[in-house]
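Render this sequence as a predicted structure.
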Amino acid sequence: MLNWLFDKKKSKTISLESIGIDIHSHVLPGIDDGVQTIEEAVDMVSKMQLLGYSRIVTTPHVMWDCYKNTPEIIREKLQEVRQASRDAGLTIQIDAAAEYFIDEHFNEMIAQGRELLTLPGNRLLVELPYSTPLLNTTENLFAIVQKGYQPVLAHPERYTYFYSDPSIYKKLVDQGCELQVNVLSLSGYYGENILKMAEWLLKNNLITFLGTDAHKIQHLDMIQKSNKNNWILSYPFQNEKLINI
């Protein structure tokens, strides 16, 4: 996990080049609430390359009430973005997985052994509801592990219903779930409370991955602006899991 130092005497900056890979973004056009055109997609990819990333594993939503994305749909859009990015002279590697909302459809896919798109290392990026907790979060994560996947919980700092008992985060990690914090959370983009929880998770060494969760170019502009202003992070050593993913 990332062992972040929060020493006010130290410079709090981060080199995104030292991370290299972004494992959470929405840059495939027209299939979720991310970019809507191929031009926007290329702009996003270009900005991510400029920020220092050498690889993107973009993760469109699979949320059956509104985003009925399948591996075939995602792969087709991926090829379009790859080709357009090559045509624009970009060299960043672009791959795709998915961000799976844990709902009834997801549970059916897991139970039936259907194809799921994974991050490197057979990792499965999943998200929870924002407003109310699932009653069976632990059971769902156990089912993922039982099927041979490594669950990665997206943006745990944004599930505010966990704030009353933050020990739940450690329980999730102890049960084999990796946690991914949004870079934007650490910029204060989502508000002070989410910023504080993101910092708490980092201080307590519970975070394995950072991801932009960028849906639009403005998100990347915010990251670039924050980084230029000697932002909020210190990155004292290489995280083997992250670098070797």
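Summary. The beta strands are 21-22, 55-58, 61-62, 93-96, 99-101, 123-127, 150-154, 178-182, 209-211. The first strand starts at residue 21 and ends at 22.
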